[in-house]
């Protein structure tokens, strides 16, 4: 249910339009979080009259209070609303018609085997750690992984130069087919079967990921961290929202499903920020800078510095701040990971511990991420597996709390 109240265009929206030439985007403030609402309300009054062409990106139940003072919010807040909505779907058991008949079981087995093979090839450690999960969960995770990989390849793969907005539109229609039980090919059929088996898996994060690919086609600069956050949510945080309903929350958890979803989002954001920090040089050679421009300016770093790969005092200090922020997201992810179903925790801890180590390697390289690629040596990667396994055996902290 959406309000009919006054809404205003956010500064972040204006920045986005500057970069993307997009239609005016307005986000209205939604239920909860009184402190932020008060602050946002002041911002809204300052922003002036409402804007035509309102587009609501976040939808959640309204209270009368919210109707009285709907105001603009940051992308971070609108993503938070998406997460809350996804968490509310966690208990969803409405069956989907997408399951193929028993006759097709052989075809599906083959499709899932293929998904497993792709996962094994590109994400070995993660694949290995999925072996502890129940077969139904494991195959669903592989199918989701393969869909994400194929989506990413549209803008990052060998044929990326030929990917147009139209190709992404077609890919999105195929996605609708998956959720409607009309898969296009075998790999889509595997995903259709997975989302039928786990009805709490919603189409929204999948569509948002395609939006992330659209952003990549249209944009090569990010004005603020809020803009970058939206990008990180779309291309990586969405993976967390797609997979949590499959992985499941520990029956002993008292943490609330929102904590788990927020942790999953945080892991995606942390991984993506890490990926960005590792690849600054590589991205710059493609003319791309995935770092907040306002923060670069404050640090006294110009685009020319980045293109020339200058590892200055300013750069090191800037990188320290960026790394600290990525680590904070990893920390939030830990809280969610600990509350997952025990058999699903291992792959999550493995990916968290492994990816976080890249940040240590950037430090070890003296913050030179222009000419050196930070990578985790094989021995360290292997050592992370038993460490992750031990972590996965620990009961959810919330189950230990006294009630
Ligand atoms: C923490 C909780 C509660 C749940 C976990 C939910 C999950 C699985 C989140 C994972 C999110 C994730 C793996 C996002 C992808 C992020 C990312 C930057 C992937 C990079 O992929 P590649 O491009 O293949 O990486 P490399 O370039 O390092 O090979």
TrEMBL record:
Catalytic function, reaction form: 2 (2E,6E,10E)-geranylgeranyl diphosphate = 15-cis-phytoene + 2 diphosphate
UniProt keyword list: Carotenoid biosynthesis, Isoprene biosynthesis, Transferase, Transit peptide
Pfam families given in the database record: SQS_PSY
Superkingdom: Eukaryota
Molecular-function GO term, any one: squalene synthase [NAD(P)H] activity
Alphabetized SUPFAM superfamilies for the sequence: Terpenoid synthases
Signal peptide positions on this chain: none
EC number: 2.5.1.32
Localization of this protein: Plastid, Chloroplast membrane; Plastid, Chloroplast, Plastoglobule
Topology in the lipid bilayer: Peripheral membrane protein
GO cellular component, one term: chloroplast membrane
Xref: InterPro entries: Isoprenoid_synthase_dom_sf (IPR008949), Squ/phyt_synthse (IPR002060), Squalene/phytoene_synthase_CS (IPR019845), Trans_IPPS_bact-type (IPR044843), Trans_IPPS_HH (IPR033904)
UniProt cross-references to PROSITE patterns, sorted A to Z: SQUALEN_PHYTOEN_SYN_2
Keyword Transferase: yes
GO biological process: carotenoid biosynthetic process
Top-level EC class: transferase
Family: Belongs to the phytoene/squalene synthase family.
Protein's name in the database: 15-cis-phytoene synthase
Taxonomy of the source species: Eukaryota, Viridiplantae, Streptophyta, Embryophyta, Tracheophyta
